[in-house]
């Protein structure tokens, strides 16, 4: 015979109140704002391709691993991005000291190197497989003025006040600690040093890149201007990327 639980009037009331309180707690949790940390980052449930970590309203994208190296060296990249025109507009001198931050396989590093024969190019990377590729390519091309540097999530590990121009190509949106990396770059730049950012245009729906791997020009300005940089020049000659050149302000 099946037994049925019978509640007295007071027991039923207590059970009902407990149920309502539990439901209310869940509702309160769902409505709670994103927890804010002391370092200025917030966290939420990760979006597709995202980390769940948010900086100044932008979710930071998950990093592309070294397994995507072939995509960086694809045959169509010059046609799609017009990298040679970017380099022409960097105003490089033979003695310029350049930092290619997030150098990957060296697509930009080894195009820049011949432009600065009396200068230096720092190829900064965090992933060991890319580090190995960069060193092998430096040796193969006998580019002795290319210095391969192992960076990390907080530091670019470059000498203070040594860089004329730093370059980040489709890298900034993946930085786990953008505020700290910008501060590290700021320290590495000479007093009149520049930072050039190339990012896929989020304003253009025809740019077929995942949303978190694109940025608007307004968002780029907001984040950099909050970290000691001022927009010096913005160009629209690139087909799918923003060209935004910043200078130090403090």
From TrEMBL:
Indicate the secretion signal residues: 1-30
Matches recorded under InterPro entries: Methyltransf_12, SAM-dependent_MTases_sf
Example of a GO MF term: methyltransferase activity
Keyword list, A-Z: Methyltransferase, Signal, Transferase
GO BP field: methylation
Q: Name one Pfam family in it.
A: Methyltransf_12
Give me the segments passing through the membrane.
none
Per the database record, which ranges form the Methyltransferase type domain?
100-195
* Name this polypeptide is given: Methyltransferase family protein
- Which species expresses this protein natively? Pontibacter ramchanderi
